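Supplementary notes for students who missed Thursday's class. We covered one full example, reproduced here. Read the sequence, then the structure, then the short commentary at the end.
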Amino acid sequence: MTTVDLTDGDLAGLSASFETATASEIVAWAVETFGDGLSLAASMADAVLIDVASRVHPGIEVVFLDTQYHFPETLATAERVRTRYKLQLRVLTPDREPDDLWRSDTDACCDARKVRPMMQHLAQRSAWMSGLRRAESDARRDAAIVERDRRGLVKINPLATWSDADVDAYIAEHDVPLNPLLFDGYRSIGCWPCTRRVEAGEDARAGRWAGSSKTECGLHL
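Structure (token representation):
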């Protein structure tokens, strides 16, 4: 199936029907529907979605965006996850050297180091999955389980309905690998220049681009 076969109405109906489905059921639908045209984008904060998806389809393609500004702990987590799940991990890198663009224009930096490499990769795909959850921030509270992204591709968020407690329970039950920064006050982990620890009472993504109105890198818009 291609994205052309699914209208916006179809996607809205599927998203509504998946509100009571398990993450595994949603992943199974995505794999059956899109096959090799499906990618899973991983930030390497945790491997919850990778664990869920690997139990459904061990050969699923997992993509990691190496922005050249990740914390060392994030890169180490990527290698641990690759080994644990025997992944054919595809690492995407930007077509530019490290620079100081993040100091003057975070939107342009995210576009160059995350959005563009991902768009180039997804040009050969029909759909992609992410671990985005509604509970992460107010900006994500209305996230659909199945939607069309700005590239026209189908985007699937199998964990959209999961609470923090759901995530913690799954991690404990399945011994899911975690980025050690999660134990050091970082509840959402991006590039080191634009990520800080989260204070008590703040939402999980408050430490991303702190002090600005920016809340997303652009991948999920």
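Commentary. The beta strands are 38-42, 61-65, 89-92, 127-129, 146-148, 154-156. The chain has one domain: 3-176. If anything here is unclear, bring it to office hours.
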